[in-house]
Amino acid sequence: MKRVLLNWSPAAGFCLMASGKIEAIVNDRNEFYDYAAGKLIAREAGAKVSDFLGADDTNDKNDAFLASNGTGIHEKIIECLK
After folding, report:
1. How, if at all, do strands 64-68 and 24-28 pair?
2. Class of the CATH-defined domain 10-81
3. Could you tell me the pTM of the whole model?
């Protein structure tokens, strides 16, 4: 069973993912200060970060992206986003 968690704090969501408590985050147009630190924390923890089409996201200012723990869930979410 899969669940969707809506969190008021994108940075807290990234920390949950980096600690292994959730598998992925879909970030769609939040403010830079809401996701910048979390995106860095997730990357440093080994997260896979891509745009919604699956291309690697290397631009820290990109505000529409998918971050996951790098397992098969990443590709499954991309399919759902198409």
Report:
1. antiparallel
2. alpha beta
3. 0.85
DSSP 18: H
Residue 37 in contact with residue 12, Cβ under 8 Å?
no
Tokens of 20: 């292994």
Q: What long-range pairs does 31-37 form, CB within 8 A, spacing at least 24? A: 31/63, 32/61, 32/63, 34/9, 34/10, 35/10, 35/11, 35/63, 36/60, 37/11
Q: Under DSSP, is residue 47 helix (H, G, I), strand (E, B) or coil?
A: coil
Give residue-wise pLDDT tens across range 38-56.
888 888 888 999 999 999 9
Supply the DSSP symbol for 56.
B
| Domain residue ranges of the chain, discontinuous segments joined by + | 10-81
